[in-house]
Amino acid sequence: MRDLLSFAKMPVLGAAALLGALALTPPAQAANFLEMNFWMSGPRYDGQLPSCEAGLTAINSQFTEKEQTFWNSRLEITGFTDIHETALRPWQSDNIPRRFCSGTALFNDGKARKLHYSIIEDGGFASFGHGVEFCVVGLDRDWAYNPACKAARP
Questions:
Q1: Which residues form the signal peptide (predicted)?
Q2: What radius of gyration, in Å, describes the C-alpha atoms of the chain?
Q3: pLDDT in tens, 26-73
Q4: What is the DSSP string of the chain?
Q5: What CA–CA distances, in Å, run from 31 to 34, 37, 40, 42?
């Protein structure tokens, strides 16, 4: 019986010892000069974005790959018309620079559909180069930019 009582007291004594050790530790200190400034310079954007036409090749290839791979569709973009800029850096100046563009994409099924896209500085693979995010109205099958590609616009 004596062994049972001593065994039951062990977790209580362990918890008390842990709380006592935590109470004796010094309070947390702020980072010193080297810790604050060592390799933490942050992103540096220059705001140099290519024109709206520069993103069309990437849109064409990404759309074809997505349709064939995920939707088992032979739908392809055959051309673009009425490409124009809708906004350049519409938000605060310290956000990632983006050029928003819109236009019409022509497809091999004979239909023309609205296209909205943005060219993003350092938005490419592993933040190298410019990235492109796009949405074709009526073909946002995974609803990533719904409704009617509103989330792809500024």
A1: 1-30
A2: 28
A3: 777 776 766 666 665 667 778 889 999 999 999 999 999 999 999 999
A4: -HHHHHHHHHHHHHHHHHHHHHHHSPPP----HHHHHSS------------GGGGHHHHHHHHHHHHHHHS-----EEEEEEEEEEEES-S-TTSPPEEEEEEEEEETTS-EEEEEEEEETT-SGGG-S-EEEEEETT--TT-SS-STTGGG--
A5: 8, 10, 13, 17
On whether the pTM is more than 0.85, the answer is no
Residue 123's identity, in one-letter code, is: G
| Contacts (Cβ under 8 Å, ≥6 apart) of 142 | 70
Cα–Cα separations (whole angstroms), residue 149 to 61, 66, 152: 19, 17, 5
Q: How far is CA 94 from the centre of its chain?
A: 16
Q: What is the dihedral of CA 62, 65, 66, 67, to 10 degrees?
A: 120
Kindly report the CA angle at 141 between 138 and 73, in degrees rounded to 5?
95
Domain boundaries, the chain: 2-37, 52-152
